[in-house]
Write a structure and sequence with these properties.
Blueprint: H1 15-26, E1 33-37, H2 43-50, E2 57-59, H3 77-80, E3 86-88, E4 92-94, H4 101-105, E5 106-108, H5 110-115, E6 121-123, H6 125-128, E7 132-137, H7 144-156, E8 158-163, E9 166-171, E10 174-180, H8 189-194, E11 197-201, H9 207-222, H10 224-230, H11 232-248, H12 256-268, H13 275-291, H14 298-308, H15 325-333, E12 411-412, E13 423-427, E14 434-452, H16 466-476, E15 488-496, E16 498-505, H17 513-533, E17 536-543, E18 546-554, H18 557-565, E19 568-569, H19 575-592, E20 597-604, H20 614-623, E21 628-632, H21 642-650, E22 653-656, H22 657-660, E23 668-672
Parallel strand pairs: 1-10, 1-11, 4-7, 7-10, 13-23, 16-17, 16-20, 20-21, 21-22
Antiparallel strand pairs: 2-3, 5-6, 8-9, 12-19, 14-15, 17-18
Helix pairs in contact: 1-2, 1-13, 9-10, 11-13, 12-13, 13-14, 14-15, 17-18, 19-20
């Protein structure tokens, strides 16, 4: 084992993570693993260490497709040559987030086309990962068009190429392993379902375990060779056990009783489709082979359910991933009730009577463990109900802040359920960040057409249309050198993502409980839409004397929802401060990610009685051409029309809150971007 790789057996804790990885390599048909967790929880370390435990594979020398014996790809020149096969380590291929489609699926061999004038295929990462592991770090940040390619290859086990005069297919059977931090955004449900197993990696809470992690890491960094040698025997035992389990997994049979139990569990947890039943069954068989038993029992089936079902359970974007283990145990008890646990001191002697505290046998009870003290149940004291407008009548998640002083009115109001709202879409010229909201040009979208390279333009390698370039060069004459005039580049198109800045009025004018609940419900619906469109979101609130960005730009709408849940109200209405703070958030993020276009959503009744001028702030935003919409939260028969005036100053549309979440409104609001 290389000293550059941390030993798998040296990873402290993370037992479920290690079990999931081992099950996925015992039976690769399970479909791989997605590992969720925060930074520094050994996700990448465990994945890279797994490779050293896998047996070598046999290939022809120089084979780029890792062809199996007798099943060579037609275009594989290495396998076409008759010769002895050799063994190589199981491939572990890492897919970079910034990789292009050509690098993933393969492309035309430019060198062979230019020098030899023949069409040749240059294999991509899918070919390199065949019969091995394909690892995607931060898989939730992968571009959608690459996700689509991975979905097809993972489902079919074959990579089909039809491009630039190349027409072929090659096997692409690999275990897909992805790691992600959910705070940076969620995975598309289609891709999440393709992962056979899911596991959450968390930092240990036990100080002794945490200190052992640090101790081992420091020893490894001080002397990698000696540290790896220290765990070499454990690594060999693990590798031998994995090889034995892979050899025996075909002989393990799942009984009809436990197969029916798995289907009953999947139906009870309302998972979509039948892939969950298949993957759970295969996982139970793989775990049985790993444990050295001939047929899965309750322990293997229970662990398989905990690995294969949490990410497939039907849930909303704001619901936590996971399943109720008590409910799972109840369903499994119907198949095989748990055996009653015997007392630690053995069965009770039938001749012994009830313990009345006597000492007839001379036993003073000094070796017996006294029973735990009974806790006294005090009767509940009923307190008088709070006043109708008291914060105690509100649904609270945590104590409100005291930013405006003790005299300020403080409320934390629960949001109405998220529903459907009108979709926001912005039209703009130029290239924008890839997403799923507005149609437009994207830097890494699908290639839609080729065009001549503009004067002074320096095309990226992935944008060069090789076939069109060679055709233009041949038509002009191959005797002349290739020049700028021959270059053809791809125009790429798709859907753009946005930064949605929610500027929400949290002042006393919004303090009415039903109104604020409706506002929170609409904003929560916007977060749901942002989740589906893969946007980044930021939340700015204004109240009292100023405004605050309570949520910096993030792709995790779950984090945004938690910030919204504890939103307090009260105090004066500094609308201008809220607009200025929103503009600062937009400008700061524009410097960090210039391709991601902003959309500003202002939720207000138009009133202002504190802070800087709202008109000047609106003019500054309008001059920059920031698209957006003003949602009028004013209610009642008498309306002042203040939100409409704010929208006019901003150069935006104004929509009433009740109309914005209404089915009668057109499903899309087009927002024209100024730049």
């Amino acid at each position: 084992m290389s000293a550059e790789v941390y030993p798998f057996s040296a990873v402290v804790g993370q037992e479920r993570l290690k079990t999931a990885l081992i099950a996925s390599v015992v039976d690769p048909r399970i479909g791989g693993v997605v590992i969720r967790g925060q930074k520094g929880t050994a996700k990448s370390t465990a994945v890279r260490a797994l490779r050293a435990l896998l047996p070598d594979i046999d290939v022809s020398p120089g084979c780029a497709f890792h062809c199996e014996a007798g099943r060579a790809v037609d275009v594989c020149e290495a396998c076409a040559k008759a010769g002895e096969r050799t063994t190589v380590p199981t491939p572990l291929v890492e897919l970079p987030i910034g990789a292009g489609e050509d690098r993933l699926v393969g492309s035309l061999d430019v060198e062979a086309a230019l020098k030899e004038g023949r069409t040749a295929f240059q294999p991509g990462l899918l070919a390199s990962a065949n019969r091995g592991l394909l690892y995607v770090d931060e898989v939730n940040l992968l571009d959608d068009h690459l996700v689509d390619v991975l979905l097809d290859a993972a489902a079919m086990g074959v990579n089909r190429i039809e491009r630039e005069g190349v027409s072929l297919e090659h096997p692409a059977r690999f275990s897909l392993v992805g790691t992600m931090n959910a705070e940076e955004g969620e995975l598309r449900p289609q891709l999440l379902d393709r992962f056979g197993l899911s596991v959450v990696a968390g930092a240990p809470a036990d100080p002794a375990e945490r200190s052992e992690v640090v101790r081992r890491r420091m020893r490894y960094e001080a002397g990698p060779e000696s540290f790896v040698e220290e765990y070499s025997s454990e690594e060999k035992e693990l590798a031998a056990r994995i090889a034995e389990a892979r050899a025996n997994v075909g002989g393990v049979a799942l009984s009809d009783r436990w197969l029916l139990a798995i289907s009953r569990v999947c139906a009870a947890f309302e998972v979509d489709g039948l892939r969950a039943d298949i993957v759970t069954s295969r996982t139970a068989i793989a775990l049985a082979a790993w444990n050295g038993v001939d047929s899965p029992g309750r322990p293997e089936v229970r662990e398989a359910c905990l690995l294969a079902l949490p990410h497939r359970r039907r849930r909303g974007p704001f619901d936590d991933m996971g399943i109720d283990e008590d409910e799972l145990d109840r369903l499994l008890d119907e198949v095989e009730p748990p055996e009653p646990e015997e007392p630690e001191d053995g069965p009770e002697d039938p001749d012994d009577g009830p313990d009345d505290g006597g000492d007839d046998d001379g036993d003073d009870g000094s070796d017996r463990t006294p029973p735990p003290p009974q806790s006294r149940q005090e009767p509940e004291q009923q307190s008088p109900p709070p006043p109708e407008n008291s914060p105690a009548n509100e649904s609270t998640d945590q104590a409100p802040s005291q930013a405006d002083g003790p005299a300020a009115q403080e409320q934390i109001v629960s949001a109405a359920p998220a529903g459907r709202v009108a979709r926001l879409s912005a039209r703009a010229r130029g290239i924008g960040a890839a997403g799923r909201r507005s149609r437009g040009a994207t830097p890494r979208g699908a290639a839609v057409r080729s065009r001549p390279c503009r004067e002074g333009e320096s095309p990226r390698r992935g944008d060069l249309a090789v076939a069109s370039t060679i055709t233009a060069w041949v038509r002009r004459g191959k005797d002349t050198p290739l020049s700028q005039r021959d270059y053809r580049v791809f125009d790429r198109a798709g859907k753009q993502g946005h930064l949605i800045v929610l500027c929400v009025d949290a002042s006393g004018s919004m303090g009415a409980r039903k109104r604020m609940a409706a506002v929170k419900g609409a904003v929560r619906s916007l977060l749901l839409d942002a989740y589906q469109r893969r946007d980044a979101v930021s939340l700015v609130t204004f109240r009292g004397k100023g405004a605050a960005a309570v949520l910096p730009p993030t792709s995790s709408v779950d984090v945004a929802d938690r910030s919204l849940r504890v939103l307090a109200t009260g105090g004066r209405t500094p609308l201008g401060e809220g607009l200025i703070k929103s503009f600062e958030v937009i400008e700061r993020h524009r410097r960090k990610d210039p391709l991601r276009r902003p959309l500003l959503v202002v939720v207000t009744d138009g009133r202002t009685n504190s802070g800087r001028s709202a008109e000047r702030a609106s003019e500054a935003i309008a001059r920059q051409g920031v698209p957006g919409v003003v949602i009028d939260s004013e209610s009642g028969f008498v309306r002042t029309g203040g939100a409409g005036s704010v929208a006019e100053d901003l150069g935006m549309k104004c929509v009433r809150l009740e109309e914005f979440a209404s089915e009668t409104l057109s499903r899309t609001i087009e927002l024209v971007a100024g730049r």
